[in-house]
Every structure is written in C-alpha cells, then in structure tokens.
Amino acid sequence: MSNTLLMLAVLPGILIIIYVYKKDKVEKEPWPLIIRLMIFGALSCIPASVMEMFIDSAMPAYPQGSLAYALTMAFCSAAFCEELCKFAFLRFGTWKNPAFGYRFDGIVYGVAVAVGFAVLENILYVSQYGFETAIVRAFMSVPLHAFCGLFMGVFYGAAKQAQVQGRSSGKFILLALIVPMLIHGVYDTLAFLGNSTASAVLLGFVVLMYIVAIRCVRQFSRDDWKSGFYPDTQPLSGGQGYSGAQEPPLSGQGHAGRRGRSGNAGAGYRAYPGQVQDGKIILLCPHCHRGLRVPVGMGAIRVRCPHCGKEFSQTT
Known about the structure:
Blueprint: H1 3-22, H2 31-43, H3 45-58, H4 67-94, H5 103-129, H6 131-139, H7 141-164, H8 170-193, H9 196-223, E1 235-238, E2 276-277, E3 280-284, E4 291-295, E5 300-304, E6 311-315
Antiparallel strand pairs: 1-5, 2-3, 3-4, 5-6
C-alpha cells in the first residue's frame, strides 16, 4: 500500500475528529483520551468481525442482491455487530472517566470510537481496491460510521447525565444502540441491493445525514454550557462564619455572560467528584451518591443535597 493511499484512507477520519473536537466549546477533551478511544474503536473491529462471521454462517442463503439478502446482511450482521462492539468499547473507555462531565463529551467519545473503527476498516478496503475506493469511501462509508458515532454519543451523554442525576439511564442506553444500528442498517441495505435506484436513494440518504449531523453537532455545541452534570449548592451552617450568599451557578446552569477556562462566553466548567475548580469542590452525597458543588476552605460545614434533600457534614 503506497503512502498516498494510506493518507487517503486515514485522512477523512482525522478531519472528522478534528471538526468535532473544535466544536467542544466548554472545555476540550484530552487528546490522550481521544487517541485511546480511537484505538479502542479499531480494536472493536476484531470482535465485530468474529460475530459477523458467526451470524453470516447461521443465516439462510438468500440470493445476493435480493431484498432479503440486503436486509439480513445489513441489520442482523453488519449494523448489529459493529455498533454493539463500538458501544461496548465506548462504555468501557469512558463511563467512569472523570473527564466525562458534559453532554457534548459523549459526542466526542462516540465519534472518536467510530472514527477508529472506520479508519482501520478503510485501510483494509483501500489497500485491496485502490484509489477509486478511497475517494468513494472518504465521502460515504467513513462519514457513515461518524454519523453512527455521533448519535450514539448524543444518547450516551444523555444516559450519563441521567445516571449522575439519579434518573434511569436505560432508555438512553437503548437509544444509543438502536439509533446507530438503524442508520447503519439503512445505509448497508441500500448498498447491498446494488441497483441504480438503491444507489440513488443511498446518495440522498447520505446527503440528508450530512445535514442532520452537522446541525446536531452545532446545536449540542452551542448548548453544551448548560449541560453540566453536577448542580451547585450552599453550606447550611459552619464554614467559619460563611454567609451563605448566592454563589455563581455551576457549569451549564448559569448565565450566558460567564466564561469557562476555554474562554468562551457562556461556557461552564468541567466538574467531577473531588475536583477543585473556581474555588469549589465537587462532592458526592453519601445518601444518594450524586454530585454537588460547594466552596472550598470553609472548614466543617453542613450541606443539604439538592437531589435528595438530605443533610450531611463535610470538611472542605
């Protein structure tokens, strides 16, 4: 495989992840984490391939090009196996990571895993089929994986937010799997049909996904400052005479004029348990195990959890 073909195979995925990274306005995700997730995405190709081979061998031998063949290969094999494995590596690599504090983080993580998968798959296809395949896949197959990773990340971020806030995350986890599988399945069904009508519909579907995906990224990027996972609260007593005056609101629950460390107007602060930032520390309520933020350096204080309403003592 020539250096030119290798660059053509890798470059589309790199450009996608850079675009999403730049849209993370509150605070950039650490590059070591992004690179690790891309590696996880590439590794997810292995179990996905094994699962696909097993499922393919168990499915009826429908005529190639038939609707039954396209649907079973697309939904039961490719979409199900690949999206499930990508989600498993996404969950393993990020669910308990302290950097995971905003909804848009889930999008960055989902796209990173998807791009890692797509880049490795693209290298294998381009090395076998050459330049024309590299060009077509740069605008079709690689973005397809990114679309799936984007919507997986949207619902994955919602699941994490729900879990932190003590709500059920099950429906969001389910959507983080089903929506990418549907997108992937529709794309592959049209591709496996292989006729001119299906190809035209496939092109229209990809154009539509570009529009929807770009709008989605822009919206979640714009609204991310108000999507922090941890609420602010005040001491009830103690704190060396702390007055209990109203503090500025926490990440995403504040006003548009506030600036985060990234310097963006309206940006909040990344917050996770144990972190001290902006003169406050994130604590976990011992009763409901959800996060809240209080001022540091106040000594022994009493705090009422804004989630469950129970009080507890804490030294800050």
